[in-house]
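Table S7 (text form). Paired inputs.
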Amino acid sequence: MGPVEGSGQWRSARRSSCVKIYLISNPEDSVVERRALRERVFPGLREHCRHTLGLDLTVVDPYESSDAGKWPDRATRQQLIEECRLSSSGPFLLALVGHQYGAGCLPARVEVAEFQLLLQACQRAGIRTSSLEEAYLREENTQPPCYHAPTPTQAEQRRAGRRKMEDRDEELLKLFQTAASLCVQDGLMTQERASNYFRSELDADLRFALGSGSDGDVSHRCLVYVHRITDAPGGRKDGAAREPGTAREPGTPDAEPQLQLIQQLQLSEDHLMSRLRDDFLPGLVASCQLPVYATATEYDRRHGYGPARRRAYAEALSRQLRSDLRGLIDASPPEQEEALGPPGDASEHGELCRTLSRLYDVTRPEEQEIKAYLVQRDTRRPLVVAGGPCTGKTVLLAHCAQEIRSWLPDRDPVIIPYFSNLSTNSSPKPLLSSLCRRIARGYGDPAGPNPCPSRTPDSGGDASSSRSPRLNLDPHRDKDSSPRLGPDPRPDQSDQRHHPDLRFDPCLSLPQLQERLSNLLSHFPSPTRPLVLVLDGLDQIDNNRQPQIIRCLPSPLPPDVRLILSVSSRRPRALEAIKRHFPDCSAPPPRTSEGGVRVEGENSAWVESRPPAGSGCALVELESAERKQRVEMVASLLGASGRRVTSGQQAMVNRALSSCSLIFYARLLHQHISLWSSESEVQESSLPDGVHSSISALLDHMEQKHGSSLVSRSLSYLSVSRTGLTEAELTDLLSSDDEVLVEYIGGQARPSRLRVPQVDVERLLLDLRFLNRRTVAGTRVLFWVCRHFRLVVGKRYLGCAKIRKEVHSAMADYFSGRWAFGNAKPLLITQESGLNDAISDANQMAVFIDRQPSDQPFFFKSVEALTPAWNEVGLVNFRKIHELPHHLKESERWDEMDCGLVMSLEFHQAMIQAGLLVDLVDILEGEKGSPELTIPRERGLLLSTLKPLACLLQSSPSEHSMLMETRLLPYMRVYPKLKGYIREIDQERRKGGRGLGVVLCPAPSTVPSIQTRCQSCVTALVCSTDGSYMYFGQDNGTVSIFDTKIANAVAECSNPNQNAIISVILCEDKFQMALWDTCEWEQWDHFLAPRGKAFSYAVLAQVGRLFLALSETCSLILVWKISTGECVLSLDPGSDTCVLTLLKMASNIICITPNGCLTIWDSELIYEAQKAPKMSSGVTEVVVDPVGERFYSSDGSKIVWGWNLTTGTPDANFLHDGPVEKLRLSPDNQYLVVLSGRDIYVWRRETGQNSFRIGGSTASDILVTPNSNFGVSLSERGLSRVWKLANAGVVCNINLYLADAKVSPESTFLIGCHHGDLLAVSLWSGSVSKRFSRAESSECVVAFHMLPEDPDFVVVLAASGGVYTWKVTEETVCRQFQLPYTLLQGPQMASAGNFVLLLTENDAMTLFDLSSNRLCSTKVEGCVFKACLDKNGYYVACISYPSILGNGCLCDAHAKGVLTVTRLTDGERVGKVRLSKTPSTLLVSEQLCVFVGFQDGSVAAYSIPDADIYRGGPGRYSTFGEQVIIP
C-alpha cells in the first residue's frame, strides 16, 4: 500500500504489477456512465492487461455503492488517490466531468484558529453558531489541534434517520459557506481558501490529484473527459430562496443577501464549474499536456437530456475511453525482467531486506556486537543472534545487512540475506540451491540464466563489482575429475584464469548441494571481497529440516566467510543443532581488554582478535530495549502520523510499555493510541497487555469499521496464501465468497453479475498498516510483515480445521479458474440475507451470480503481445503455479492435485518456463508425510524422465514437450494413464502448427529410474519383511527410512553423538518364513560375464524372464534375456562406485551403492525397454514404400527387416547369404531389390517370396527405373547390366562405369559422370547416346541434377563453378550463372524439386533455388552430420551435433545429436528433436516423414506438421538468401 497516515515508513513506492486507476466523478451525474464502463470497458481492459502485459487492472470507484452512507470521506479519497498514484504501473487517474458541478462537502476537521475565525464572523453578523459548536468537538490529539465532527456509527444513523442527518449536514455546510464568504468580504480569508468550503467532491478530488503530481504523471498517467450540455436550464442555485410566505428563523443567515454575496465573490456552483472547466483544466493542458477530451451535447428543449441520450453518450464514451486508456497502458509497460525470466530470489530477498530495515526504530547495542564480528579478518566461526519472539531479530539483521558496506569501507563484500520465514519455499534443497545460485551470481559467475548485475552501495541484496574466475562445479563433468582450484584457492581479482561455466542443476541431491556450497565458499571469497551470509529464522523451518540445513554448512567456516544466524531462544532445537555442528559455542564474544580489538561506535564492544581455528561460534542474546527508548519510539511514530496524546493518556501508555518490553508491542501500541481522541476516557483495560491481545484488539476495531465478514475473510485469505495476494486477487476471492457477497445484495433485485466494490477492499487495506508489499516472481503481493498476525488470524478465524479447509478450497477454485469465463456461482439466499418476498421461512434459494473473477491460464497469450517471445510461448502465470498446488494439497483435493495438475503437461511447461524445475521435482516426488497419491508409478516415471533432462531444459525450456514425448512413448503400454499427457503434447503441436510428430519411437537406450541419496555413506542396511521399507544406517549417525513404493525418504532419526551406525535391528510384530524344496531344481542356462570379469550378484525379474547381474569392478547392471541368452540392456545406477547390493522387490529393482545412492527401476519398464525392436547393429540404410505404410531397414548384416509403420513393429525378415550392401524399392511398390555380397536378390514385397537371385555379380550399386520395369546393376570393374525386374532377363550391357549414376525420369537413359564428362547411356542398347563435355575449357563435371518436371533438361555444375542447362535430346548447352568459389570446396549436389543442396559446412547448409536463381543459407544447432532433402524440395532435414564450447556442458542430453527440419520456402524451422542416441542414417520420405536410423539398430520416424498444405502441388517459392549474379 502507498504512504498513509502514520505509515510512511511501512510502505514503499516501488513499481507495481497492477494498473490501479482511481475514478473521479460527480456521483449524482455519472451513474449511467460509470455503470457502462464497469460492465463494458473495464473487464475487457483487465483481460488485455493480463494477457498482453502480464499486469492486472483494478478501478477504484469511490461511489460504486448505491448506499451514499458507505461513500468514503474526502481524506480517505485523497489517500486512495495517492495510493493509486504510487502503486499503479501505468495510468492512475480517470476523471469524468459532467454537466453538474455537485454540492460542496462538509469538512471533516478544521484547525482551531480557522474554526474560531469562522465562528467570530458569524457572531458579528448575528448568525447563531450553536449548531456548529455542538457538531464539532475540539481535538487536542492532532497536530495542530483542530475541531472535528465525529463520524456517526450506523446505529446512530438509523436512530436519527438518514434524511434528518442529511438535512443537518446541509445546514452546517451553509453555515460554513456563509462564514467563509463573510471572512473573504472582511479580508480575513483569501478567496482560494474560502473556496474549499464551496468546492464539490469532484472539484476537490481533481485539484488534489492533478495539482500534486509531476508533469509526467499528469501527461502520461491521467485521462479527463469533459461533457458539456449546451443551452441547458440552470440547476440548483446556492442559497436558493425560501418559498413565499415562509419566515426566516432568528439567528439563521438570510438567503437572498447570502446568495448575492456568493455571486459577488464568484463562489457559486456556476462560477466554480467554469473555473474548473475553463481555467484549471486548460491550464494543465498547456503546461503539462494533460489529455482532456471534451464533448458538447445540445440540450433538447422538448425532450430534455433524457435516458436515451445519456445512454448514447455512455456508449460513445466507452468506445473512446477503451481506446485511450489502452493506449496509455501499452505506452508505459512495466519492467519485465523478472516476469519473463525465472523468479529472482536474490532481488526478492534484497527487497525484503530493505523493507524490513526501515522498521529499525530503536538502536540496539547488539548491533555493535554484530559489527565487531564482521570487521574481524581471521575468524572462522559463525555468529548466532538469539532472542524471544517479537524481540526484533529479523529487523536487526535486515538493518545490519544494509549497514555492512559502511562498516567495511576498505572491502567489497558480497552480502546474501535470506529470510526463511518469508521465503516461498524454505525446505533444504530450495534453500541451498538459492544460496549457491546467489553466491555464484554475486561473484559474477553465471549460475543461472543471467548473471546478477553489480549493486549500489546501499543495496541489501547480492552484490558484485568485478568478475572472479569461474569454478568447474558442473554436475555432468567427468566423474573422475575434480575442481581445479589452482595453487591459491582464493585468487585475487587480477587472476583472469578461465574456468568452465558454473551451471546450476535443479535436480541435485542434498549431499551434492552441500558439496557445491562448500566449494563455492572455499573458492570465491577473498580478503578484499568477503562473503556475508545472513540466514534469518532457521527456527521457523520444520523441525525435521533444521538439522539438515545446518549440517550442510561447512564447519569451520572457510576464510573470508561470515555467517550470521538468528534463532528463537524459545525453540532450542535449532540452537542445539548449531552448537553440535559448531562445537564449543556456549560463550558470547569476549569483551575483555586483553587480546581484543575495540570497535568504536555508539556502543563500543570488544571482540576476540584470534579465536582458535574452527572453534565454536559467537552467541549474541538479544535483550529487551529500554523503556525510555520504547517511549521515544512511540512518540516518534505519533509525530510522524500527525497525532499525540494528552498527559493523562501518556501515563497509561508508559504503564503499558512497562508491562511488556517487546519492540513490536510498542509498534502495536502506537496503532491503538492513534485512535484516541483528547476526550477519550482511558483506563488500564483500554490497552491490551501483550502482542497477541493487541492484534486481536486491532482486529476488533477493523470489524467494527468495515464489517466482520469482510475483515475475517480478507485476513483469512491473506494468511493462508502461500506467497501473498494482490489487491485484485483479494477482491476476486471476496467476490466469490458467499459470506461476503450476500451483504451486498439488497432490496428485491436478483443480480446476474455482482462483485465486491474495489473501493471497500482498498479502504480496508489502508487501515491494515501491518500489511506490506513485496515482489514474488515479478508480482507485487501483500504479506504480513510479522508472522504473529498469521498466528492470531489463524486462531481467531481459522481455528476449525473444516473452515481452514474451506478457505483453501475456495482459493484452489479461484486459481484453477473454476468460476471464470462467465461461470455463475450459486449463492444461497435466506430471509436473513435478502430477497425476503421470494423465500419462505423454511427454505433457501440459490441465485446464480457471475462474480467476474479473472481467468487463470497457465500461460497468458495474446496476438497483440508486445514481444514475439510472449506471442510464441506466452507469459507464465506465476501466481497460479505458486498458489494452486499449495491450496489443492491443503484442501486435500488429491484427485485434482494428481490428475489435474501433477499430470498436466501445461503445468509442467509453466513450471519449467518459470525456472521452477526444483519445485516441480519436489511436487512430483510428493510431500513427506502426505497421503500417497493415486498413481505414484506414473508420477515416478515423469520424475525419472524429467531429472536427466534438467540441465538441457534450463537453456531450452521450449523443447520440453518433444523431449518428454520421445521418452515416454515406449512405455505407454505399461502406464496407459499417461496417454492423456501425450495427447496434450499432440494437441499443442497441432494447435501451434510447429514441431515434429513422433510416428515411430526408437528403442529406449536407458530405463528411467528414480534416484535418491542418503546424506552420508551407508554403513548398515535392513529391509522390512514385506519389502515396503528400507532402513539405512549412515556413518554420520543418521538412520533414513525409505518407502520403496513411492521411492522417497519418509522419515529420519539421528544419533546425537553423530557416531556411525554399525547395525540396524528391525523389530516387527509379525514375520513369516517359507521353506522351499530344492530337490527338483535344475539348471536352465548359464551366462558368462564380460571377459576378464566375474559376476558378484544376480537376481531374476519378471517371473524369471530376465536375469540381472552385477560384475566386479563395473558400475553397470547387465540385463540378460533368459529365452535367448542375449544381453539386451545395461542399467546405470548413477554412481561411479561399485554397487553394494541389488534387491528385487514386488515390482521394483533396487540398487544401493556404498556412498548412499539408492536407485529404483520399475521391473515392467525394464521388460518393456528390452522388448523394443532393434537390429543387431547400426542401421545403414532405410527405404520407404511410395504409400508410406511400410519401410525396410538394413544394418549391414544378412537380414533386411520389413516394418509396419502403423504398428511400429517389424513383421517381415529377408535373409541373404551375405551382408546386405544396398536396398532399392521399385516405384510401383512391387519389388524389393537387394545387393548382398556378389548376389542380387529380387523379392516380392507383398508375399515376401524371392522371385529370383542373380549370382556372381560384381555390382557396387543397383538402381530401379522410374517405370519399375528394369533394374540396373552398376559395376566399377566389370560390365554394368540392365535387366528386367519380372524375370531377370538381360536387356543390355554397359561397358563404361558411370559415377553418381541416375536413371532419367522417362526411363530412357542412364546418366552419370565419366572422366569429367556427363554421359547419357541408352538403357536399350548400352551405348553412349549423348555427351556433355567442356573439354575445350578443361572443365570437369562435378555434379548434376535432373528436373522431373522437365525430363529433357539436366542442370550441370562444372569444377569452375559454372552452372549449365543441358537439353539431352538436342544436346544443346546454355551457361546460366557462376557460383561463388567458396561453394566449390567439395560440393554435395543433393537435389530435389527446385532446390539443390550444395554444401554443408560447420553449422550452415547452403542451397540453390533453381526457380529464382538465389542462394539460400540456413543455420542449425552445431556441426552438420547428415542432411537430406525431401523428393519435392519442400523441406531439408539435417542432424547436427551441438558444440560443447557453445553450451559449456558435457551432460548426456546436451551431447546428443539434434534433428532439425527447415521449410525451404521461407527458411523457417518447423521442428526440432533431441535424439536420445547416436544416429547413423537419415531419410525424408515422399510422404514427408523423416526416418532416422541409429547405431544401436533402432529406427525412429517423425512427421512434419505442416506437410499437408504442400501435398497438393509445389506452390510458390520465396527465398531467404541473396541472389546470385548471372554473368
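Next pair, protein 2 of 2.
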Amino acid sequence: MAQCAQSVQEFVQDSFVPMVAALCSDDAERVSRKNSLSFPELLRPFCRLTSEGHLRDPNNQVVVVKGLRISVTGVNTETPQPSQLHKLLSQAVSACQPPEGLPANVITAGDYDLNISDRSVKASVPWYAGWKETLTQLSSSKFYTATTPWFEAYRESFLQSMSASDHEFLNHYLACMLVVSSREATPTEQFLKLSQEQHRVQHGGEYTHPKWFIPNTLKYYVLLHDITDGDEQRADAVYEDMKQRYGTQCCYLLKINSRAAAGGPDEQMPDPWSQYLPKSQAQSPEVFEDVVVNNVENNVCPEVDGHDVSEHALCESHPLELDQESDPNYPGFPGEPVNSMDVARKQGGVTASSAPTAHGACLTLNDHDRIRQFVQEFTFRGLLPHIEKNIRQLNDQLVSRKGLSRSLFSATKKWFGGGKVPEKTIAELKNAPGLLYPPEAPELQIRKMADLCFLVQHYELAYSCYHTAKKDFLSDQAMLYAAGALEMAAVSAFLQSGAPRTYPAHYMETAIQTYRDVCKNMVLAERCALLSTEILKSQVKYSEAAALLIKMTSEDSDLRSALLLEQAAHCFINMRSPMVRKFAFHMILSGHRFSKAGQKRHALRCYCQAMQVYKGKGWTLAEDHINFTIGRQSFTLRQLDNAVAAFRHILTNDSKQTATQQSAFLREYLYVYKSVSQSSCDASLPQLPLPCLHSAQTRVFFGHERRLAEGEKQAATHVWLDQEYDREQAQLWAELEEQVVGVANKGSVPNGFQPTQYCLSSHTDNLRYPLAVVEEPIIVEVVLRNPLKVPLALAELSLLWKFTPKDFSRPLGGVPGEPLSNEREAAAGRVTALDDIVSTEVIPEFTVGPEETKVARLKLLPHKTGQLHVLGVLYSLGTGEEDNSTSEATHLMFVRGRQDLEIQGPRLNVTKEEKTSVRHGPDHRLHPVITPPMPLLEVFFINFPTGLLCGEIRKAWVEFVNVSAVPLTGLRVASTHPEFFTFGSATSDLTPVTPTAAEHCSAYKTMSASPSVATMTLVSPAVFGVAGNERPTVAEIPLVGGVLGPGEALQIPLWLRGPDHEGVHEINFLFYYESVEKNAKLSHRVLRHKAFICASRSLSVRATACHSNMLPERGGADVAAGGADVERGGANIERGSMLVFVDVENINTSEAGVREFHIVQVSSSSRQWRLHACINPAGDRDSRLASRERGKLCFRAAKCTAQEDVEKYTFADLNLGSEQIVSSTTPCADFFFRRGPPSEAQKGGVSAGRASQSRQSLTPAGRTDDGVATVVQKCSEVELDIIVLWKAYVVEDNKQLILEGQLHVALQTVGKEACSLPQREEAQEMVLLKFKPDLPPPVSRPSLEQLSHLIKTCLHYPESYDHPFPQKSLCMVPVSLTLSNCSLAQVDVIIDLRHKSTSPESLEVHGSFTWLGQTQYKLLLRPQEVQRLALKACFFQAGVYNLGTPRVFAKLTQSGTMCETSQQSAVPALIIINSV
C-alpha cells in the first residue's frame, strides 16, 4: 500500500531535491572516517531544513520554501550499470522483511477477516473514523512502521539510484562542496586542487557522469576542523583567509569530533545515521542470519521434476508453478543464494562474528548542532541565492530570445490562450532518438528554469514552464523530452497550494505510455507510475491506481512486477467496497514473481496472505496450489513445520486434483516429512494426516474371535464385529440378562447391575470403564478413509497404548504401578518389546485403495491386571503405487508416525445447566479395566435344525465347553421364546445319551397300548419348573457336581418345538455362568446365541366344547343313532360330562416334502376336566389327512376327581393307534407348560377347591351383582387344554422320514370355538376421545346366554307307544323330566308346560297333544342338586310328536333376572304313537 509517515506532497517533494556534490581531501575524509562515516553520510541526517527559506521569483514575489531537503553525495564518475542497480534494489528488498512478533491487525473486508501483520494499517484505510488524526499521529510516532516497508525501501533506493538524464535536470548537481581539513599544510592549495578537479569533471569532456545543472556551478568551501586533534587558532586563521579569498557567502568552518572515540557505555550517543544508511551497512550481522538460508534443492521430491516426463508435464500444467529453469536464483541452482542478501554477505564479507558498527562515536550533541547549522548556512546563504539568481538569468534569456514581455507571468495568457494546436496521439508521433537539443536551446532553458522552480517549491511557475516546454517538445516530436515535461507538469499541478488545479492524470498516462512504448525506458516509466499511484491513492482512486500498477508489470523485472502487483492487491482491499478476491489473486501473482526474483520469504508471505481468502471457500484447486507453493517455499527456507502443515492441508481436504497430481503431492509430502523427522530430536512420533481416521466410528470388542462350525456342530453366534448394532436387539439382550441375573440372585437385581457389552461403539453406553479379562484379547476396529485418488500403503500397523498395572486381589485394587507405554519402543521400531505386559499385534502391510474406506482390526492381549488406555494407531505411511524403483528406495519413502484416537463423548442433556450449554460426557470405550481370570464358555449345537413344521418336535444336542483355566458354575439359559425349547425335567429319562444313538429314535416316551378309555396321570407343574401360572423364562442347566472344570465338556439333549406361526422366527438364547471364585470386578459372564427357524404349515386344530345332556347319575358309553333317549347305559360318572369336538385340517401344501399327517393321539391336560373316551365310529380310529383334507373327532370329557393338591394337572391320553405317547413326561409336558401365556379364563377362573368358599360367600349380606356374574360365568367356563399329537411322513432325498409334533388348543368357554393357531389381533380404528368426568364402573351382569346354562334338563320317555284309539280315544303316556343344577349356588326354577309357540313348524311337530295335571311348577334347586318330575302327556290320535315343549326358567336366588333355558329347543324329543 506504500503508505508512509509523510504525506503524499512531502513524498513527492522528497523525490526531487537539490543535488549537491562533495569533493573531500584525504585528510578531511580521514577526519570524517573517525565516526565510521564519509562526509556526505555525516551530513545526511541533517539535510532537511527545520526553518523556512525565502527567495524571490522573477516577478519579485516572495516564495516561501518549507521543509526543504538537499541531497549531498560524493562525486562518482562511473556510469551506473543496470546489473548493479538490480542487485542494489534486490538487497534493499531482501534486507527488509515483515516484522515478527508484533500483534497482528485484522482488517474486516466484507465477509473476510484478513490478518495483516502491521499495526499501522489504519493509515492506509482512509474511510476509518478519524483517519486523518490517525495519520498525523503515525507521522509523529517514532515507532511507526510502514505497511509494506520492503516496498518503501525499494522505492527509496530506486529513486536515489536513478542516474541523471539529458532530457531533465532534476538529478543534476547544483553546487559542489569542497572540503579540506584544517590540518593540511596548505589548505588554500588543497581548495585549488579540488576546484580544478571539479572543473575538469564538469567541463573536461572526459566524463559523462555526473551531470551538472548549469555551467557556473556553485562552489562552497568548507574547512573541516577536528577539535580533539587540531589547532583551533590555526583553523580560525585559515578560515579568515578563506573569507577574504572566497567571500563570506561561500565558505564555512565546521568543527566536529569534540570527544575521543573510546567513550564509556554511559556516554553512548544517539545514532541518527542508521535509518539513512543502506541496510547492508546499517544492519548488524545478526539480522543477516535471519534472512540467509542454506542452499537446498528446489526439487523437494526428485521424482516430481526432471526424472518423470509425465509428472514434469503435470507440473507445467499449473501456470503459477515455480519456474526454476528461468530463474537462476532459485535454490535448485547449486551455489546460488536463496535471497539477494546472501550475495551481499558473500561479496561484502560480512561474517557472523563481526561486531555491529557504531556511527558518530566522536561526535557530541554540540557537534550535531554544528553540522545542522552548517547545512542551514549552506542552504540559506549559498544554495538558495544561487538558485534565485539562475532563475532570474534564465527568465531574462528566455524573454530576450523570444521577444516576449519581461515576465513569463504576463505572457501566460498569450502562450495558453487561443489558437491551441490539437495534441497528437502517441501512435501518430514518431520516435526521434537522434534528436538532441544543444545546451543553449530555448526549449532546454525553459525546462531548466522549470526544474529550478520545482526544486524550490515554486510550483505555479514550474507548471507554466513545463506546459510551455511540453508543447515545444511535442511540436518537435522529441518524445523523451515531452514525456518528461508531461510528468513534471502533472506533479506540479498536484503540488500547487491554495486552489490547486485538477490533477491531470491523463498527463501521467501519456508520459508512462511514451516512456514505455516509444522510448523503451522502463526506469522512467516506473518512476512516473510510482508517483502517479501515490497521488491517485491520496485521492482515494484505488481502482485507477491498481490498474496503473498492473499495467506496469512486465517480464523484464520480476522484482518490480512482484512489488507492483502486491501494491495493486492492497489497492483492491482498500476500496470502499473491498474486492477481496482480486486482492488474493494479485497477491498470488505477486508471490509467484517474488519467487522468480529469488525473494523466497516475500513469496511465502504473499501466498500466506492470499490463503486467508481462499481457505474454506470451496476453491479447492486454488487452495491446493497455494498450499503446495507454501509447502515448497517453507521447505526451501527450512521452515519445516510450516511445510508439513501446508502439505497436510493438501492431503486431508477433499481434493479435486487428478490422481497423478495427488500422487506427486503425496511424494512431496513424504519427502518433506522424512526430512522433518530426520532433523527432529524429539523421540515422540509425529502426527500423520493420512489416511483419515474416523475416531468416532471406532469399535472395541472384548473376547476371542468367533469359531466357525465344525461338521454337524454349530457354534453359538455370540457377538462379533461383523454384526451391525441394533438398538432394539441390544435392549432385548439387556432385558434377558436382567431376568437371568434376577433369578440367579434369588429374585432381586443388584443395584449396580450393568448389562454386559462385548462390543462397544458410538451407539453403546460408554460412560463407565469397560471390563476385560486378563489373557483374553481386545480387538480394536478402526475406520480408515483414503481421501485421495491414489492408493496408500501402510506398514507395521499397530496400536499405541499406555498401561498402569493394578492388583485387584488386594483391597481397593492395591497401589497402582508405574505407567508403561509402547510409544518409545514403536518409534525405535521395536513394537513388540513389551509383549510380556501387553502383546501387540502388528499388521505388516495394509493397503487402502483410492477413495476407499476400510477397517483395520488390531489386537491387544493383556497379560497383567490393571488399567489399559488405547491412545492411537502407529504405522508407516507410503505410496501404494507400483513403480520400477528398487525396494530399498521404496522403503526410504515410508515415514513413521501416529494418529491419536480422540473420541468425544455424548452430549449431556440432563440438568438445566447441561441443557443450556454444550457439554460432553466421557467415552471410556478405549480405556478398559483388565480384571483377574474368569471362566470362558463355548456352546455348540449338534443337529440343530433350520426348518421345522409348525408344532414339530425335534431332538437336538448342546455341548458346553469351558475353554478357560477357571471352573465355572451357575449355568443358566434365558430366551425370548421359552416355548421353543426345553432341556427336559429333572425326572426325564436322558437315554439315549449321545446324538448318534438318538438319531432314529422318537422324541417322545412311548409305550404299547390298545385304544381304550383314556389313561390318566397326575403331574405337578413344579416338576417342569413352572410356578403358578407363569411360564418359565430362565432354565437352569444341570452340571455334574454343579461345576464345569477347565477344559471339560458336557453334552445334554435339547428338545425343540416348531413355532405355531409359519415364517422365519428369530430365537435368542442367553447363557449365563459365574466363576467359582468371586470376582470383585466381574460377577458373571454371558454368551449369546441367535438362531433362525423357518416354520412351515402343518395342521390346524379347532375344538369346541358343549354340555352333555347326560345327567350325573346316569352315564353312557355311546349315543344311539337316532334314539329318543339322549344318553342311556354305560359306567357311572359322578360329576357330569361334556362333549368335545376336535376339527383337524391339513393346511400343509406339500411343503418340505410332506405327504400326509397321522393323528396318533389326543391328550388333555387340566386341573378340572379330562378326556374320558372317544365316541367316533370304531373304524375311524387312525385318522390320516392328506393335503387340504379335514377330519372331525368327538370326545367325551368328564370332571376330574377332587384331589388334595389342587395345583396338579391331570393328563389323559387317548391314543388312536397301537402306540401310546406318555404326554405327562418330557418333552410333551414340557412344551405344554411352556406354551403361550395363560388364557384370560385361566387368569380369572376359580378352582374346584375354592368352590365351597364361593358358595359360602353367597349369603344375603354379600349379595352383589358382581358375585352373581361370577357364579353364572363359572357354569360356562372350561379349563381344558387339548394336545393333538401327530406324525408326518416326509420324503427327502428318496428317503422317507417320520416327523413328530404336537399342537395345543385351550378351551375356555362352552360353545366357543378355540384354535391351535393364535388369532392375530386386528388393528383397532382410531376413535375420538371425549373428555368427560369419570363415571362409576358399570355393574357386571350375567348375560342371558350365561343364565341359560344354569339348569340342565332331560326328558325320559319311550321311543314308541302303542294305543288302541278305536277303543279308547285318549292316550296317556308317562314322561319323566329331570332337572340338574349346574351351578354352585341355589337356583329358582319355573317349569311351564303350556304351549306358547306360534311357529307353524312347531305345530306340525307336536301336533295336538297336551300335558295333563299341573302345568306350572316352581322348584328350588340347591347347588348341583338333581330333581325329577313325573309328567303325563295326552294324545288324541296316532302320529309323531315332539315332547320338547316344556319351558324351563331359571334364576339365581340372589338375583331377580329370570331366563329361559335353551337346551330343549336345541334337541327335539320325538315320540311315535301307534294305533293298534
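Residues 365-402 form the longest helix (38 residues).
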